[in-house]
Design goal:
Layout: E1 22-33, H1 36-40, E2 42-43, E3 46-49, E4 52-53, H2 54-67, H3 69-72, E5 83-91, E6 95-106, H4 111-129, E7 137-147, E8 153-154
Antiparallel strand pairs: 1-6, 1-7, 2-3, 3-4, 5-6, 7-8
Helix pairs in contact: 2-4
Length: 156
């Protein structure tokens, strides 16, 4: 059964009033495949464009998105995140790997916040590099790990 559908088959936020506050963490990852000309633009671990440093900007965008997840996904609870860390690494020959880890002490998990942070960071990489090439593909966005709550998940 879907947790966001009630007994009358109507959508709604999951009621978390009986859940316990625990430390909840989530780690999501997005992978962007980029052409050689984009990888060749890397200098000191980042790509400098007229819009600014690509990876640093993507980290800021992903962090902002993680904090705004409930504004983007209708049934997500608004959460006061306690931590959001985004790491971006270019891996030869043609991958940019974005990891987003989020944590909170709360009654509900932060999987969607981590997935949103990684996704928006990937979109920002695409946006900032599209002047060099549109030959980029956001290959995947997936949850790697979550802890806290009813069950843990380790998909790494």
């Amino acid at each position: 059964m879907f947790s966001h559908i009630d007994k009358d088959n109507q959508p709604g936020m999951v009621d978390v009033d009986t859940k316990s506050v625990t430390l909840r963490t989530a780690h999501a990852q997005s992978v962007v495949r980029v052409p050689a000309k984009v990888m060749d633009a890397l200098v000191d671990g980042d790509i400098q464009t007229k819009k600014g440093p690509v990876f640093q900007t993507a980290i800021l965008a992903g962090t902002m998105a993680a904090k705004k997840t409930s504004d983007l996904i209708p049934l997500c609870h608004p959460l006061p995140l306690e931590g959001c860390k985004i790491h971006i690494e270019a891996l030869a020959p043609d991958r940019v790997v974005i990891d987003c880890t989020v944590k909170i002490h709360h009654k509900t998990g932060v999987e969607m916040e981590a997935l949103t942070g990684a996704s928006v960071a990937a979109l920002t990489v695409y946006d900032m590099c599209k002047a060099m090439s549109h030959d980029m593909v956001i290959e995947s966005t997936r949850l790697l790990r979550k802890t806290g709550g009813k069950s843990d998940y380790h998909g790494e």
